[in-house]
Amino acid sequence: MSTVLDLFTFLAVGAGALFFLAGTVGLLRFPDTLTRLHALTKADNLGLGLVVLGLLPQIDGAMTGLKLIVIWLLVLLSGADAGQLIARAARRRPPP
Amino acid sequence: MTDAFYVAPALLILALGLYTTCARDTFAATVGFLAYGLLLTVAWVQLRGVDVALIEAAIGGGLTATLLLRASARLRPAEAAARAERPGVATRLLAAAAAAAVAGALAVAVLTLPVPAPTLAPEAAANIAATGVGNPITAVLLSFRAMDTLLEAIVLLFALIGVWSLAPDRMWGGRPGPRHHADPDGILAFIGRVLPPIGIVVGIYVFWIGADHPGGKFQGATILAAMWLLTLMAGLTDAPPISRRWVRALLVLGPGVFIAIGVLGAFTAGAFLAWPDGWAKPLILVIEIALLPSLALTLGLMLAGAPERPAQP
After folding, report:
1. Nearest to B261 by CA among B290, B288, B283
2. Alpha carbon B37 to its chain's center
3. Which of A43, B95, B141, B242 is geometrically suited to a Cys-Cys bond with A47, CB 3.0 to 4.6 A?
4. Domains in chain A: boundaries
5. Nearest residue of B to residue A77 by CA position?
6. What is the ipTM of this complex?
7. Nearest chain A residue (CA) to B199
8. CA of B86, closest CA in chain A: separation in Å?
9. Closest residue to B194, CB basis, from A77, A85, A88
10. Rounded to 5°, angle at Cα B13 from A25 and B60
11. What is the pLDDT along chain A (96 residues), one digit of tens a residue?
12. How far apart are CA A6 and CA B221, in angstroms?
């Protein structure tokens, strides 16, 4: 059983790390603010979500798992809002 | 393999430090400093210094970087002029020599430390139980080194007075910073309503858990101040005029209670800031509870800035 759970953790955290890597590459390579934001928010939302999902089988106690999920939800909330705010500011300012 | 986990952040920290120092643009340097603070947080977590990591994330990375961001935004119009004033070669060489000398002296001091380093940790650990506080960091900060903590709380007040002293004479006693306006149906107003209730609970939790686990009043107060600033920036609330009696009273409440209990210790336990036997835990708790709102207000007002508007618009 624990081998299956370990494999699940390995796959989920690995996939999360892949999203972070892709997000970082996008942040560095994409041409303008809006597309860069797109890359960044995907990394935050999906990458961290997969990492949290992968860590859930490894912890003891429901409280710790709940805290991890709440952290992910808070990052979702603040990431999405910060992305909106930056996008709005970028749209108001003419491109250089 | 394990070494790579320690060496990689250390190299990144050095590289970011270099970038922050060399960046010509104030804004770029500030962002570099912000990332530098976050990386330092990671390094402290790796060293198992979770208390220090929390402080670094809250005050070193978050609060200081926000102060610097505000300053760089304010300096932006003058930046081109400032860059044009290039100091002479002699001045720059002198600055480089002074900076290199300080860095060299620090490096020599660290490298010549005896191995193992002299430590009071075993003695401190042996006496932690007497304080009744479970988190050794809190116990040391409020029992064995209470003087340091008191001075830290007071130095923040001085910093706030420093910020206020930038106010023009006619605005003295007025409201700090500009009045923020945001779209009342917009995203900032939304997050300004959704996040503070959660943030206040988290801030008080971080403060309360500090007795037995990593956390404490400085970290908790920073979170509370951040939530207050969020409502300010969303235009949902306005900062109070700094001449208000309750503002001044709340600012000195924490340090005042700290000093009063310290003086009490001089009579009951024989020394300033000494706690009588068996009373350490409740007294530490009273001081922490009194410090929390004072610190939150001090940090919040420091970020809100110098008074810029009259008290009555």
Report:
1. B283
2. 12
3. A43
4. 2-92
5. B191
6. 0.83
7. A74
8. 26
9. A77
10. 105
11. 688 888 999 999 999 999 999 999 988 998 888 888 888 888 888 899 999 999 998 888 888 899 999 999 999 988 888 888 888 888 887 665
12. 39
- Which of B25, B185, B187, B206 to mutate: most A Cβ within 10 Å? B187
- By three-state DSSP, how is residue B307 classified? strand
Nearest-10 Cα torsion for A66, A70, A71, A75: 160
Residues of A in contact with B188 (CB under 8 A): 81, 85
- Is there a contact between B190 and A81 if contact means CB atoms under 8 Å apart? yes
B103 touching A, CB under 8 A? no
Q: Which residues of B touch A77 (CB under 8 A)?
A: 191, 194-195
One digit per residue, the tens of pLDDT, for chain B of length 313 reads: 568 888 888 899 999 999 998 888 888 999 999 999 999 999 999 888 888 888 888 888 888 988 898 888 888 888 888 778 778 889 989 999 999 999 999 999 988 888 777 788 888 777 777 777 777 777 777 777 888 888 888 999 999 999 999 888 888 888 888 888 888 888 888 999 999 999 999 999 999 988 778 878 888 999 999 999 999 988 888 889 998 999 999 999 999 999 999 898 888 887 888 888 778 788 888 888 999 999 999 999 999 888 888 877 6
Q: Do the Cβ atoms of B124 and B136 come closer than 8 Å?
A: yes
Residue A81, chain B, CB below 8 Å: the answer is yes
pTM, whole model, 2 decimals?
0.87
Quickly list H helices, chain A: 2-29, 33-42, 48-55, 62-92
pLDDT reported for residue B1: 55
* CB of A78 less than 8 A from some CB of B: yes
Residues in chain A: 96
CA B250, CA B256: separation in Å to the nearest integer? 10
The answer to whether B182 contacts chain A (CB < 8 Å) is no
Q: Chain A residues with CB inside 8 Å of B190's CB? A: 81
Sign of the torsion angle spanned by Cα atoms A42, A48, A51, A57:
negative
